[in-house]
Write a structure and sequence with these properties.
Structural class: alpha/beta
Protein name: Alpha-galactosidase
CATH architecture of one domain: Alpha-Beta Complex
Cofactor: NAD(+); Mn(2+)
Keywords: Carbohydrate metabolism, Cobalt, Glycosidase, Hydrolase, Iron, Manganese, Metal-binding, NAD, Nickel
GO biological process, one term: carbohydrate metabolic process
Strand order of the largest sheet: 3-2-1-4-5-6-10-12-13
Number of strands: 14
Shape: globular
Helix content: 40-55%
InterPro entries: GH4_Enzyme_sf, Glyco_hydro_4, Glyco_hydro_4_C, Lactate_DH/Glyco_Ohase_4_C, NAD(P)-bd_dom_sf
Largest sheet: 9 strands, mixed
Number of helices: 18
Radius of gyration: 22 Å
Strand content: 15-25%
CATH topology of one domain: LDH C-terminal domain-like
Oligomer: single chain
């Protein structure tokens, strides 16, 4: 049986995370014949990943993918069928400032990459970078399908559409998978053993990235909402996780949660929350969850841990590239390979993605980046009508979505004078006095000034 050839350009191809998941998924797949070009501003990291990709190819279940590190983005994009964008905007030192400076002003952030002061300044650094990537795609691969994996997802997906309106782009996030895993666990627990996986669970997704909800859950023809409601009633106060966290494992300490925020929002709003607690909490006023995060069963992830984890991943990647260890052709939870296969006409596939609103969510302006399901097929990426959020949730979501859209527009049009008022209007910043909010804004501009235009620095001063 012949395999379907596909050329993938991976921008940020020195990735220590998402690139390896793609390699494992391609090694597991038996239908594609993929050639992956890895481009990164750190070319040595891309070369390392090309060596690791060759090792994954050795254990492939189908035709082995090939990997090539290329020195410039134009070479990576030329003739690409699919472009994957997975970059780190700035350095972890910048992210540390995004979290640590607001903390001195009394603002706690559990992640700091989507909303709040941290998400805002990460966006300021990222939008010019991602917009240039979109222009490069316009110039070198205008017909390619483009998947953005980079946060802040809503803002950056919007920036890419602003820079290249005809781009064939979707934003990809795996947060909704957490809810689907829970539903599969409920069904398997009832059955007394593993009968289904999260891939069997279907949900109707509504919201914006990292603040996602579902109003319908199905599993093999069964309406799972009643069972999920009973699950929440049973575990809402104590919380739940599929396994107990390892107290010696920092990743468990800083990334696992007990879904108590998710459950509480369901009780308050009336439809299940889908994203993880650490993200959901940042969209709400600080007094709701962040101030008492330990009581709600989640942690504030310190950037110092992310740095230690990066160093550990570099060591493991160097060992793998050097021939140590054995890569595994195991399917990850990521949807990208299935999405690519759908676009190539190898079946249909539905998953939650971030796209401009074309009517899939009622009540949010057209063009706003929203997260709903979409159908991947040879016809392209077709958003599916999701409906309308409950009124209380609609108000919260519309506020964040409007700010994200306005932030994108302000940076893309160099309207630097608009930025402080947008920053000031975030729910985590609102409780500050005007003077404190201005001081926070100025200090954060100064801390990341090397990534920001001089005009913005003058405006902030």
């Amino acid at each position: 049986m012949s395999k379907r050839a596909v050329t993938i350009a991976y921008i940020g191809g020195g990735s220590l995370n998402w690139a390896f998941r793609l390699m494992a998924d391609l090694a597991h797949d038996t239908t594609l014949a993929a050639h992956v070009r890895l481009y990164d501003i750190d070319h040595a990291a891309a070369e390392r990943n090309a060596r690791i990709g060759a090792r994954f190819a050795e254990v492939s279940k189908g035709q082995p993918a090939t990997y090539q590190a290329v020195p410039d983005i134009a070479q990576a994009l030329a003739g690409a069928d699919v472009v994957v964008v997975s970059i780190l905007p700035g350095q972890f030192d910048d992210m540390a400032q995004d979290v640590d400076i607001p903390a001195r002003f009394g603002i706690l952030q559990s992640v700091g990459d989507t909303v709040g002061p941290g998400g805002f300044f990460r966006a300021l650094r990222s939008i010019p970078m991602i917009a240039q990537i979109a222009r490069d795609i316009r110039d070198h691969a205008p017909e390619a399908w483009v998947c953005n994996l980079t946060n802040p997802m809503s803002v950056l997906t919007g920036a890419m559409y602003s820079a290249f309106p005809e781009i064939k782009l979707w934003g990809e996030c795996h947060e909704v998978t957490k809810l689907r895993h829970q539903v599969a666990w409920i069904a398997n627990n009832e059955a007394g053993g593993p009968q289904v996986s999260h891939r069997d669970v279907i949900v109707n997704v509504l919201g914006i990235n990292h603040f996602t909800f579902v109003d319908a859950i199905g599993l093999k023809g069964r309406d799972m909402l009643p069972a999920y409601q009973e699950f929440v009633n049973q575990h809402g106060n104590s919380g739940w996780s599929s396994r107990e966290p390892d107290p010696e494992d920092d990743h468990d300490t800083y990334f696992m949660d007990r879904s108590r925020v998710k459950f509480d929002l369901y009780r308050r709003i009336g439809i299940p929350a889908a994203a993880g607690d650490r993200h959901l909490a940042e969209f709400m006023p600080q007094g709701d969850y962040l101030d008492t995060h330990a009581d709600w069963g989640f942690a504030l992830t310190p950037v110092a841990y992310r740095m230690r984890d990066r160093d550990s991943k570099r060591e493991r990647a160097a060992a793998l590239a050097a021939g140590q260890g054995t890569p595994q052709a195991e399917r990850s939870d990521e949807a990208l390979v299935d999405q690519i296969k759908g676009l190539l006409g190898l079946g249909h596939f539905v998953s939650n993605v971030n796209l401009p609103n074309r009517g899939q969510i009622d009540g949010l302006p057209h063009g706003t980046i929203v997260e709903t399901n979409a159908l991947f097929s040879s016809l392209g990426v077709t958003p599916l009508v999701a409906g309308r959020l409950p009124d209380a949730l609609q108000t919260i979501t519309a506020d964040h979505a409007a700010r994200q859209t306005a932030l994108t527009q302000a940076v893309m049009t160099a309207s630097w004078g608009d930025l402080f008022d947008l920053f000031r209007s975030d729910p985590l910043v609102v409780p500050l006095s005007d003077a404190c909010a201005k001081d926070l804004f100025v200090e954060m501009v100064q801390a990341t000034a090397h990534h920001l235009p001089e005009e913005l620095q003058r405006e902030a001063a």
